[in-house]
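Shipment paperwork, digital attachment
Item: protein structure file
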Amino acid sequence: MAHFLFPEAAPESDVRQDPLQLGKMLEPGIRSMGYELVGIEYQGGGKAGGLLRVYIDSEQGISADDCQKVSYQVSGVLDVEDPIPGHYTLEVSSPGLDRLLFKADDFRRFAGHVVKLRMVHPINGQRRFKGRLAGIEGGRVVLEQEGEDISLPYEQIEQARLVPEF
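Attachment content:
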């Protein structure tokens, strides 16, 4: 199961905190290269090792060369700092059309788009929600679903992802 980097405390914190604190370590180098650190996810693995995914973006979009450059930079930092015990695979990627939403600002930025949410615990017996994102206010994410607004606690979102519309 993947671990998505969501906050434990402040419901509208700017950057969702990851348990390994990798964002603070990696973001300055990524930003200095002209890219935005969109988010990080880590999936621990047994004997096979873990998978560390670093999502980057830029106004010009992301190419395979961009991913390679950032991968080289991130690998260097991780080799020196060694924050992850054992073997793992590093994957650097664009967020894609079905991008994950990692930050409270993402819920503002992508207001008007269709999203799928998975909650940590069921709300009225339901863990999965899909609807048009109205935004975030007062620590609650608002979705429009079948003409009605649904307000969900931001701190209880396990995963949020855009749904591409064609």
